[in-house]
Amino acid sequence: MTAISLSLALVATVLSPSASPSRHAVAPAPALVAQAGYPPPPPPQAEVVPAPRSGWIWVPGFHEWRGRRYVWVPGRWEHERRGRMWRAPHWEMREGRQVWVQGEWVVAGPPPAPMPPPQPQYV
Q: Which of 10, 31, 75, 108 could be stapled to 61 by a disulfide with Cβ–Cβ 3.0 to 4.6 Å?
């Protein structure tokens, strides 16, 4: 039970609606939450995106499923991490099920190769 309380305290601290960065930002650990049978999230809410700040990135808000409904998690500042990029929270299809993947910092690699042009179709 202590681990759950600690996790909730960390998430509550990180997801504070404060728009100004703190000296020590802590990102929640990535988590997968199966969402089979739940409705799709509503469209994102309009947010005022603050002006860029040196050494910080703005992580946009998103809808998160909590118990019986979606709750808007407002955007927040994250301290920039050299050699890493922020991957936004998103839905993925895994083993035939929709799964919610929390946002996380990932190692920045080379940009993906451009998609090849579509092949002509002959009839």
A: 75
Look at the chain and count its residues: 123
**pTM exceeds 0.90:** no
CA 2 to the chain's CA centroid: 25
86-111 b/e with 16+ CB inside 10 Å = b?
Answer: beebeeeeeeeeeebbbbeeeeeeee
Are 34 and 20 in contact by the 8 Å Cβ rule? The answer is: no
Mean pLDDT, residues 38-59:
87
In sequence order, the β-bridge partners of residue 72 are: 63
Q: How confident is the model at residue 36 (pLDDT cuts 50, 70, 90)?
A: low
